[in-house]
């Protein structure tokens, strides 16, 4: 396991993922019943932004002009909790999730790399969430269904291994057998459009209601490390699609690298 998220922290892909995550939680937390949240590939939790990291094409493009984009106020407020007036640190998904939950909710973060797991332990207090060192796909089997019967599950693998997609689909199948009503957010990279479409089709074929949101920062035919990213959401909460229609066009406008905003919500 070689993947280190630090260089990618605050990238355009992180921005999209975290905006969608927060908007999802926002909707789900409007109901008073306790919620279970699971982050299967948690990462370090808090990242010191690097001088020439991918944040230059992500959060740094947005931050200084944040007052101009009220639809993204929700996201800026969450990132702002970890910063003074100057942007220095970027919160990863476990801190963003823990920051939204109420005392009656429960959060589990799973991380596969020991060093990364230990770093997360330094920034996520035990009362805000339980942290496990292990395989996030195994956690789908071990931790579902939750006693709360309501859950949001973020699955954010690094896609470094050729076996990642089959592990993801197997894990999801098991998860859905155990907890079909869970809300699952699955992040994926877009390097090759057809490849990304195949993954979405395979996930959609699992039978749940699906919402898919994609944002390309480069045109699809430019050869790049990453042309964009997307999330497929199973059992999306009511109102999420409409809300994403309000925030994603703004994001696409700010994050495009060639002046043309490109996004898809379907
Ligand atoms: C993309 S990063 C996570 C970023 C984080 N979710 C966020 O949004 O801030 C992926 C993480 O998954 C970890 N990882 C890789 N394979 C794993 C597995 N099978 N189970 C759990 N964690 C794994 C990597 O060590 C890495 O920290």
Characteristic terms for this protein:
9 helices; eight-stranded mixed β-sheet; Rossmann fold; 266 residues; single chain; alpha/beta; binds S-adenosylmethionine
Describe this structure in words.
- This protein has 266 residues and is α/β, with parallel strands linked by helices.
- The chain has a single domain, classed as Rossmann fold (3-Layer(aba) Sandwich).
- 37% of the residues lie in helices and 19% in strands.
- It contains 9 helices and 10 strands.
- The strands form 2 sheets. An 8-stranded mixed sheet has the order 5-4-1-6-7-9-8-10, with helices on both faces. The chain has a two-stranded antiparallel sheet with strand order 2-3.
- Helix 1 packs parallel to helix 4 and helix 6 runs parallel beside helix 7.
- Bound molecules: S-adenosylmethionine (SAM).
- S-adenosylmethionine binds next to strand 4 and helix 6.
């Amino acid at each position: 396991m070689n993947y280190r998220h630090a260089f990618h922290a605050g990238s355009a892909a992180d921005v999209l993922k975290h905006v969608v995550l927060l908007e999802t939680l926002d909707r789900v937390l409007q109901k008073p019943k306790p919620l279970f949240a699971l982050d299967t590939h948690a990462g370090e939790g808090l990242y010191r932004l690097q001088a020439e990291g991918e944040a230059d094409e992500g959060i740094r493009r947005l931050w200084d002009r944040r007052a101009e984009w009220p639809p993204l106020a929700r996201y800026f407020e969450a990132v702002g909790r970890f910063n003074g007036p100057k942007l220095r640190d970027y919160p990863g998904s476990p801190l963003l999730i823990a920051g939204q939950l109420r005392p009656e909710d429960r959060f589990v973060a799973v991380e596969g790399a020991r060093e990364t797991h230990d770093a997360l332990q330094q920034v996520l207090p035990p009362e805000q969430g339980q942290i496990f060192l292990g395989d996030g796909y195994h956690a789908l089997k071990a931790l579902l269904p939750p006693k709360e019967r309501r859950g949001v599950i973020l699955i954010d693998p690094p896609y470094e291994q050729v076996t990642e997609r089959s592990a993801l689909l197997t894990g999801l199948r098991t998860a859905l057998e155990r907890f079909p009503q869970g809300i699952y957010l699955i992040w994926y990279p877009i390097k090759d459009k057809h490849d990304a479409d195949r993954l979405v089709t395979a996930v959609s074929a699992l039978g749940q209601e699906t919402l898919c949101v994609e944002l390309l920062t480069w045109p699809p035919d430019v050869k790049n490390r990453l042309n964009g990213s997307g999330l497929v959401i199973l059992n999306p909460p009511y109102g999420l699609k409409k809300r994403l229609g309000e925030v994603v066009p703004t994001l696409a406008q700010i994050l495009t690298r060639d002046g043309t905003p490109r996004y898809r919500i379907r």
